[in-house]
Amino acid sequence: MSANRFDTLVLHAGAAPDPTTGARATPIYQTTSFSFRDTDHAASLFNMERSGHVYSRISNPTVAVFEERVAALEGGVGAIGTASGQAALHLAIATLMGAGSHVVASSALYGGSHNLLHYTMRRFGIDTTFVPPHDADAWRAAIRPNTRLLFGETLGNPGLDVLDIETIADIAHSNHVPLLVDSTFTTPYLLRPFEHGADFVYHSATKFLGGHGTTIGGVLADGGTFDFTSTHLFPEFTEPYDGFHGMVFAEESTVAPFLLRARREGLRDFGACLHPQAAWQLLQGIETLPLRMDRHVANTRKVVEFLLAHPAVEGVAYPELDSHRDYALAKRLLPRGAGAVFSFDLRGDVAAARRFIEALTLFSHLANVGDARSLVIHPASTTHFRMDAAALAAAGIAPGRIRLSIGLEDPDDLIDDLKRGLKASQKTVSSAGRSSDGSRA
Amino acid sequence: MMLEVEGAPAYAYTGGHAFEPDRPVAVFVHGAQHDHSVWALQTRYFAHHGLNVLAVDLPGHGRSAGPARRSIAALADWLVALLDAANISETMLIGHSMGSLIALDCAARYPLRVTRLALLATAFPMTVSDTLLDAARDREPDAIDMVNQWSHSSIAAKPSCPAPGFWLHGANQRLMERVAALGEPHLFHTDFSACNAYAEGLQRAAALRCPVQIIAGRHDAMTPPRASRALTDAMKQANVSVETVMLDAGHALMSEQPDATLTALFSFATRRV
C-alpha cells in the first residue's frame, strides 16, 4: 500500500472497523481481562510466544490503537500509553536504569519533571545533573561513567528554550547513551524529534494531543534507533532477565528491546497504565490534531502581535520573535509554528498581575496548558508563590510574568479579553498605602 | 547462539530456549535486508513447544559477519555449513521471501538434510524491477521506503507484533535501516540481485523430496499469490506433497498475521508425514 500522510494517519493509524461488530469508531474495550482460548494459548501469551491481550494493565485493544497511532505520527516503532505524562517519564527512567545511575537533564523543565528528577528519583539512588539547555559544553561536561540518559524538552519551561535536538543527540550517542525528549508542547504535528536524532519521546497527552482539557494521560514512544548492543552500559537489555522468563530483550527485538522491557516490566510492576476510556478520549483529540494545532498557532501569532504593541507589556517570550534567543533554531525546527504556550511580562508587580488575571472573563485561570480553551496563570502567585522577590529574580521569573495557553476561540475575542485585563492591571489602586502600581508605599 | 560458519561468526536466535540435542529442529531464514527478529513470535513458540530453533542472521545481516553472499546457491551452501557447525543432521526449513528461495535451493540440493520445507511469501521467478534494483544500489533509503510500503496491506493489523502498541510500518522501516547501517556495502542491492538472478527455481522444486507448505498473503504486493503458482505446479508434477495456506495479509505475513502464520507453520511442523 502507498504511504499515508500525517493528516490521514491521525484518523486511521492503528484502527480499522471492529472485526466483530463492524463498529467504525474505535470501541472502548472496558474490560480488565481477556479470555484465553485454551491453556496453551494462555501460556503462550504469558511467555510472549503470541501477541494479544491478557490484562488491561499490560495492554488493552483501545489503548493499543492510541499507542500505535502516536507511534505512527512520531515515526517511531511503537509506544506505550501511560496514566499521565509523569508516568511516561518515570517509565522511561525506570526501564533504562537503576540505583547508582545518573541523568543529565536540561534545567529548563516543567516543574513536575524537575521534582521527579531532583527530589524523588534521587531518593531511589538515581542522580541528575541539570544543565542549561543551550550549553553543549555543559551537557558534555556533566556526563559521568554512570550516566544512562540525556533528557530535555522540545520547548523548555518557562522561557520556551528550543532544544537543539541534533546537537544533544550527538553528545548522547557519542557517549553511548540515548536522548529522551518531552515533546508535549510541540506534538508530532509541529516537530518530530526522531527525525532529529532523539531516541525516545514522551508526551503529556493531557495537553495538545487530547486537546480538550478532559483527560489525563501520557505516552512514551520508541524511535527504534538506539542500539543497546553497541555498549556494555545496558545489561537490562543485553543479558537474560530473570523477572521475565530469562528473556534477552535485545535478542528478541532488534529495534525495540526498550519497549518490550518497558511493557513487560514497567507496566507490569509499576502499573501506571492508561485507562481505555482515557485512551478513547485522547484518540478523539488526535483525530483533529492538525486542524487544532494550525488554529492554536495562528491564534497565538495574533495574540503575540497584539501584546507586543501594548504599552502595558514589557516583553513577550515566543521563539518566533527575533528577540528570542532561539529564533533561528525555532525557524529551522518548528517551521509550522512554535506552539501555543508562551509567557509575557506585564508592566507592574504581583498586584498588577493579579488585577490582570481577575479581570479576564474568557481566559480560564488554572494550572494546565493545551486546552481548546485559552488558559492563563500567574507563576508568582501560584506555582512559585512561596518565593520572595529575590528568589523569583534568581529563577528568572519577573513578578509580572504571565503564562498563556492560547486556545481555539475567535482571536479577536481573546484580544478583547486581554485588553480588559491589561487595562485593569494598570489601574491606580486607591486603597490606603498602595501606589498606582500596587506596590506598598 | 554464535557459531563459526565458513570461517566467520554467525548468529542464530534459539527462541529463548536452550538448544537440546535430541529434539527436532526448525531453521528459519529471513528475507532481504532483514534479520532473525522478523520471526520473534513464531520461533519463541516453536522453541517452547518441543523443537530446537535456529533463526539465522544471514551473512552481513544482523549479528552475522559478512561478506554478504551474492547468490541464492551460495546462501544455501552457507546454510548447510551452519547446520554442520551446529551439528544438525536434519531439519525443517522455513524461509520468507528471499529466504524462501534459499530454503528451496537448500532442500533440493541437500535432500537428506531437510525434512520439511515451508515457503512464505515466495515467488518464482522472484523478479525485482530495474527501478527497485537501481534504487537499492544508488538510493538505499528510497528503496527501503518503497519496500516498506509494499510489504504491508494494512495500517491496523491486529494484534500488533511482537506485542500490542507496535507500529508495524515503523518497526519494519527501522529494521531495514538498522541492517543497512551495519556496514555491508549495498546489501539491499546484493540481496535483490540474488533474488532476481535465481533461475533454478522450477528445477529445484521438481527435485524436492520432502513435503512442502506454501503460505501466501492474499494482499501481497511484493510476491502476490499467483507468483508461486509455477513452483506449486512444478512440485505437483514431480509428485511432491504441497499444500498452500492463504492468509489475509500482505508480504509481511509474520507480523501482520502472527497467529495465523504460527498456527499454519506449527501444524505443518508437527503433523505426521
Characteristics of this structure?
heterodimer, A: about 450 residues, alpha/beta, seven-stranded mixed sheet, five-stranded mixed sheet, globular, disordered C terminus, B: about 270 residues, Rossmann fold, 11 helices, 8 strands
Task: Give a description of the structure.
Chain B: Keywords: Hydrolase. Chain B: This is Putative HYDROLASE PROTEIN. Chain B: Residues 27-256 form the AB hydrolase-1 domain. Chain B: GO terms for molecular function: hydrolase activity. The complex is a heterodimer of chains A (441) and B (273). With 441 residues, chain A is of the alpha/beta class. Chain A has helices at 6-12, 39-46, 61-74, 85-96, 111-123, 136-142, 165-174, 187-190, 235-238, 249-252, 257-269, 276-286, 289-308, 327-333, 350-359, 389-394, 411-425, and strands at 78-82, 102-106, 127-131, 147-153, 179-182, 200-204, 218-222, 313-317, 341-346, 364-365, 375-377, 401-405. A 7-stranded mixed beta sheet of chain A has the order 1-7-6-5-4-2-3, with helices on both faces. A 5-stranded mixed beta sheet of chain A has the order 8-9-12-11-10, with helices on one face. The longest helix of chain A has 20 residues, at 289-308. Chain B is α/β, with parallel strands linked by helices and 273 residues long. An 8-stranded mixed beta sheet of chain B has the order 1-2-4-3-5-6-7-8, with helices on both faces. In chain B, helix 1 (40-47) links the parallel strand 3 (25-29) and strand 4. Chain B has one domain: Alpha/Beta hydrolase fold, catalytic domain (Rossmann fold, 3-Layer(aba) Sandwich), CATH 3.40.50. The model of chain B has no long low-confidence stretch (mean pLDDT 97). At the A-B interface, helix 3, strand 1 and helix 11 of A face helix 1, helix 5, helix 6 and helix 11 of B.
